[in-house]
Fold:
Amino acid sequence: MLFLILLGFLLYPPAVLAEIRVDFEDESYGMGRHWKALASFSEHAGLDSVKDTYHKPGEARVFFWDLRYRDGRTLKRMDPIDYNSENEIRVKDMAFYINGFYAGKLEGEELLQAFAPNEQVEAYETDTGSLGLLIKGEDSQLIPTEYFQEFYSGIARQYARTGIFYLIPLLAAAVFVAEFYRRRIWKGRESRFSWLWTRFYTRQAWRPSSWC
Amino acid sequence: MDTVLYTAGVAAIVLVLIGAFTGSSELNPDESESIYSVQYYIGHLMPPDARTLSLDAYSAFGTARLTELNLFYIFAAQIARLFTFEHGTRLFSVLMFAGLMYFLFWNLKKNRFLLCALFLTPQVWYLYTYCTSDALDFAVGVLVLYQIANPDSMLHGLARDGIHKCGVWKLLLLGFLFSNIFMSKQNYYVLAIYAVCMLLADLFAAPKEERRQRFAVYLCFAGAALLFLGIRYIPEFVHYGIQRGGVLREMQEAIAIPKLNPASPPAEQSSAFNLHGKGVPLADILFHMGLNKTLLRSFVGTYGSLQFPSPDWYMWLMGLLYLVFLSVVCWQVLREKGHRERKVKLGFLFICGMISYVLVIYNAWFIDFQAQGRYMLPVLIFAAHAAALKPEIPRQRWFQILICATALLSLYSFGLYCVPNIQPPY
Structure:
């Protein structure tokens, strides 16, 4: 049974845990917490699609489970910042991790091709080869292009099977839980209905002290 | 019933796992400082000098988790350093919770009273979904409860047989366990009073010829606990000498914002701060500011920073179940003929519970009006011990049904009102 589950997972991995790590050119850049990613399995992305952004100076990270990694359409958009800072944000690269394993990177011109900016942000390649973002409004958005979707679906498919390294301990835990129950709880139980039969079908049933 | 409880336990572990790895880190009480502290110990071995810490380590109250004696942050860092994902700082808490459940179900046959510690309220489960030292403090409380309430525990074995060469490691282990009480948050200090009272009751209940040996063993426990506490104080002594309290107070007054600064005049302080200094009478605190209602609500199931309460009917039902539990346990222990030490212990347990409550009132009146139920969680330890006073109680039908009811209600509250609400974005 366990073997079948593992085999099934290897033949058709159902999901991946994707991590996008945004590396800013300025290592002390502290506004990474404002970087937002919206990911959704449906075609629409609402407020509940916003993923928590984890940040430290010079970096922002986003995690999301991805059930439709095969077409690369789960990531709906990225918002660099939610207010008009009128500053330039420089992104050195975006690294992608699938199931915790490094899967690839977008930088320079590839990074520029991967996202289409809306009218509130201007995107260009800087002299240092980073992606430069000039924020012009309060709702700047970067929409993934087909180039991004192909890149992402390729790396996700390549690394999806690494999920087996999490499935094995998960299955081991499930087996442990079941075995523990069988040995310590089930074997130690009183007969399931013995109290019911003896209490309700004998005279003792109606004595209040029999409940204590 | 055991199957129901086991299923509830496994479901609780799964929910805690989900909450820990998907819950927002901007929601839970004081978690950002705890995460900072854990991350500090990933890169450092020794506790820091408060005067060298960056402002990020301090809260708006001017306090820093890194200045606490608690070992939680050091332990959590050893686990978190092995993982790169963000919520690695919560992994230690999750493992502790799984360990507590395993310990509980391993002891299900002989020490069923432990069920009270983990299945009377989901507020305990919530502690283990985020990074907080309360998680270790409560786990220490459960282990202390096991040692004191279980007549076959390591502690009672040593007390009966004395300490021999091969038993020194047990003494040191127990000393380490008890020393953690003095390194915990202040609301858990009441566990030390509980331990002393229960052990003294056992001392006077023991046969006369055994009392001297038992007392000597107790002194050795105290010595071992003080030894480990002394070891923990070494880096503090190196940094501050004997001025630790003064230095931390100075840092608090220098860093806290005016509204939350103990040195600010009462008129400048926040409306919830130092109510005694503002002339608010105790009667107002007790009866007119909703303290008791908020305390009960946050004890039985309110999540986030008191933002996500469970429904009113749930609160009332849990309150009723607690009343039934208390009433039946007291009635059974008090109506028994003989067994005077059990009645004395019951009295001590009530006193410890009252001390817990009084400490919350003191904090609300003199320091900061925070009626948080998690400050009253040591009461669960006392409730569990009360159930252990008469060994038949945890095996009785009413107890089984009641604990199953609270377990299932806790699952309902935790599953519907905690885990979904602590998801980002926040």
Remarks:
- Residues 191-198, 204-212 of chain A have pLDDT under 50 and may be disordered.
- Chain A touches chain B at residues 19, 36, 47, 50-52, 54, 61, 63, 100, 177, 180-181, 184-186, 188-189, 195, 211-212 (CB under 8 Å).
- Helices of chain A lie at 2-11, 108-114, 146-159, 164-186, 194-200.
